[in-house]
Amino acid sequence: MNAADALSLLRAQAAENANGATANLATLNNGAASLFAKYRAGSLALRPKRALLFANFCMIWVKSICQFLYD
What are the extents of the domains in the chain? Predict the structure, then answer.
């Protein structure tokens, strides 16, 4: 799984949550964590800095979505 795949899955999950009754912060965070775990398993040994940057990006992206949904 590459970063583009992870982002598309996060976007799809955010869209599902936005179209549902409520957006669940825990669901978004768990989704980002599981996507990061899948990405990390394939890339951490080869690119540790890139994996850490991706983790930071995922968490910032999830927080910005949550702020948008809850504000």
Answer: 3-70
